[in-house]
Amino acid sequence: MGESAQDSYQKRWGHLRKVLERQGPFGHPEFEPSPEILEFVMNGCKILVIGAGGLGCELLKDLALMGFKNIHVIDMDTIELSNLNRQFLFRRKDIGMSKAECAAAFINSRVHGCQVTPHYKRIQDFDESFYRQFHVIVCGLDSIVARRWINGMMISMLQYDDGVLDQSSLIPIVDGGTEGFKGNARVIMPGLTACIECTLDLYPPQITYPLCTIANTPRLPEHCIEYVKVVQWPKENPWGSNIDGDDPQHITWIYEKSAERALQFNITGLSYRLVQGVVKNIIPAVASTNAVIAAVCATEVFKLATSCCVPMNNYMVFNDVDGIYSYTYEAEKKSNCLACSQVPQTLEIKDPSKMKLKDLIQVLCESASFQMRNPGLTTYINGKNKTLYMSTIKSIEERTRDNLNKTLTDLGLSDNCEIMVADQTSPNTLILKLKYLIEDVNMD
Amino acid sequence: MSSPAPKSPEQSEKSKKYDRQLRLWGDHGQRFLENSKVCLINATALGTEILKSLVLPGIGSFTIIDGEKVTEEDIGSNFFLDNDSLGNSRAQAATMCLLELNPDVRGDYIDEFPENVMKQNQDFLKGFSVVIATALPEKFLIPLSKQLWDAGIPLFSCKSIGLLGYARLQVNEHTVIEVHPDNDNPDLRLDEPWPALKEHLESFDISKLDKKERSHVPALIILYYFMQKFRNLHDGALPTNRAEKDQLRNMIRACGNEEGLLEENFEEAIHYVNTCLSHSKISSQVQSILDDPKCLNLNQDSAPFWVMVSALRELVQTEGSLPVKGSLPDMAADTNSYITLQQIYQKRFNEQVETVQRRVSEILRNVNQSPDAITEDEIKLFCKHANELYIVRGTCIADEYQSSTLDISMYLDDPDSLMMYYVILRGLDRFLSEFNAYPGQFDDQVEPDVVKLKSTIGKLLAEWGCGQVLRDERVHEVCRYGGAEMHSISAILGGCVAHEVIKLITHQYKPLNNTFIFDAITSNSVTYRL
Ligand SMILES: [Zn+2]
């Protein structure tokens, strides 16, 4: 570096240098002020940002201006018009392009020396060896499934020596989420503090309307839309495909059919906007909340990387509907967490001769502690691997479909047997031990 | 098959672009936003972060006043200054970068120090919806505060120092129609039903319904039926305390069907006991607005809000209650029973809106305002949210700064109180005006500045009559920052302040009242009313 370049560097990062090169009473116990810390932030530290949407754009900006130069970003989405009210790295001309690539190019051109590497891919396209290179993972996702998956990945990378966690295998996760004017930010030390699965009950289940209501006694415009979506569309199938919420023709068709139905039942309040909202399950979003939550996350990344302060412990909720409110507390690690506890998981079954496989799958999908999406189940019977059910591969689904209506007893699953459950919510297979509460009585 | 001809309303580009926020503040909120003019004093990182979250959702226009030239340090912390702008006007460079964010927003700048702009043209700030000042020294903030207070223009004063953020809203008077409460109890009027509703409710005898009818009757009708039964047992009184409410619940619960089971709609009726027994009473908050001198003394300059409040007041005087909301929560029932009930509420609402509307027209005529000063949609919205009406009358920053007593002593007894940071930031303000530099700004002055800042703060506390002493470590921490502006802290505060500005412009949601402190060291925040 030339003398003037060195001088300009010293000045440009003067703000950060004050905090990193001076002793502070609130620093982490290990904090030793020195120019080497900024040197590490800039050249040693590698950050992964997952998501280049509302939070992701903010995160990239914030991290770049907090001195981080080596940033990777993953996002499989492309830019849409409705992103532009908050995803400020994108312009109208960028519509249709990769979010990750556009965002990276913008940051790299605006912040001198910053190198954001984009990955126009899914998180599932990468394995442990990719994730292992990072010092901190920051998530700005709108999908719970993706959050759970990355959480599972970080936990599977932990190494234990005689039951003691090898700290060098730990990669902290900083996670943010927003909805309208509410948001949360948290710091997860996988294996040490509460993980995503530990606090799964914080995510509310999606609103669903009972079929009998939407079919027989609709009262709300939402009931009419839902009816068209789940009954009329499959029946009439106007384009011979599934509903594509981004296809205006599809939305228009649903809007018109719903409007007809609403008129028939004297239901008022149906609008095109509402139809879009229900069909696409749209979550309202504004620039300001994303800005706040992403910046809280970036601040925590900075603390983790520099030790200039003790990181947040460990969960912050934010809401600016009525004044500005935030609350920070310690979310508790669940002692039998599915993902991070290393405790074998058991599932209590009342009566295996009555419980059908589909009931078991329903439990896995609906209970607050599992919340799976489309679990695939296999087991070992007499030392042989047997697939009980799998919906994700068509040929296997057809072959195993009949099992759904068989009881656990019929399937030959005995007390204390283990089933292996694979689901999109985790990169790891969950081993579940079935515990029968009553003796498996032979009816013969 | 051929695709059906599109008959649905063609969505405009704008409503597609703003879709995710229109679902929150509506098209009417967006119109307010698009007509607003925001002024930013000093394009610091904090300043541009605030403007960013206002330009994106589409304010009408912004003006930046800033006489500084872009420095290396600015570029290192401010995203809206690019590399090539080094040495150029900061106001201009920031304006250019911010304008790229949204082609619907206009923006201009004045490359001059704010104090000069104010000196040259006293009226310059008139016409702005909100003024935001960042990093403005005390000696300029105080006159600005006075000027805007008198002009009735809201002012935000904000600072981002190290890991601390501070925002203070000064607003003379601000009215809110849509508060968007977190839990909005349904407005059902079962305690005092109007004749049409009463007639409908009393046309049902729950004890005589057959099994199918029972399962289709809306919970409201069930609840009303048992409320009447309860009244018969209690000299016409409704339950007021928990025991009585339980008694009413038990009466409903005891009314199982042939199999002794309770249907979903009966369960819902039990659930409504808690929230829906009395709702006709007017809250003291709304009553005080109805009794406000501004409502009683209307004139040609009265804001639409006060004209509508005045019309509402007359409706309340004749009918004894606020207009009914006109909406029903969903409840288990067959379509017909539900829609019939819904229409009764809706009809009542429409009648009451019409009454208010007639009164509004008369009032406008009487005070010589244009008959289209208030639209029908505005009146509808106003009536729908009549029970949420909210008003803030704030305090003036100049008064706070010039007051000899500041009532903060009670906070300072708690050594962990974030009020300590308020005190330190006020000390920092004074330090800045005395020494023309931030404490700790120069590497070799950190320790001496700690001593100086402590003495400045000590004097301030003594002036305010506070006997407490600040912990040294907090003063030391602030000197460590040396006035550094850390981008992520400015971004946190920027997002917060931007949304507060949107609240002021749209007259939706309750704004900050009035001092917000964010402590990123512990990730905690607090609001004080000063
Ligand atoms: Zn866990």
TrEMBL record, chain A:
It catalyses: ATP + [NEDD8 protein] + [E1 NEDD8-activating enzyme]-L-cysteine = AMP + diphosphate + [E1 NEDD8-activating enzyme]-S-[NEDD8 protein]-yl-L-cysteine. Pfam families: E2_bind, ThiF. The active site is at C212 (glycyl thioester intermediate). Pathway: Protein modification; protein neddylation. SMART domains: E2_bind (SM01181). Transmembrane segments: none annotated. Its EC number is 6.2.1.64. InterPro entries: E2-binding, ThiF/MoeB/HesA, ThiF_NAD_FAD-bd, Ub_act_enz_dom_a_sf, Uba3_N, Ubiquitin-activating_enz, UBQ-activ_enz_E1_Cys_AS. PROSITE patterns: UBIQUITIN_ACTIVAT_2. Residues 349-437 form the E2 binding domain. Keywords: ATP-binding, Ligase, Nucleotide-binding, Ubl conjugation pathway. Belongs to the ubiquitin-activating E1 family. UBA3 subfamily. PANTHER family: NEDD8-ACTIVATING ENZYME E1 CATALYTIC SUBUNIT, UBIQUITIN-ACTIVATING ENZYME E1. Catalytic subunit of the dimeric E1 enzyme, which activates NEDD8. This is NEDD8-activating enzyme E1 catalytic subunit. It comes from Nicrophorus vespilloides. The lineage of its organism: Eukaryota, Metazoa, Ecdysozoa, Arthropoda, Hexapoda.
UniProtKB/TrEMBL annotation, chain B:
InterPro entries: APP-BP1, ThiF/MoeB/HesA, ThiF_NAD_FAD-bd, Ubiquitin-activating_enz. The keyword Transcription regulation does not apply. Belongs to the ubiquitin-activating E1 family. ULA1 subfamily. Residues 18-524 form the THIF-type NAD/FAD binding fold domain. The keyword Endoplasmic reticulum does not apply. SUPFAM superfamilies: Activating enzymes of the ubiquitin-like proteins. The gene is LOC108557541. Pathway: Protein modification; protein neddylation. It holds the Pfam family ThiF. This is NEDD8-activating enzyme E1 regulatory subunit. Keywords: Ubl conjugation pathway.
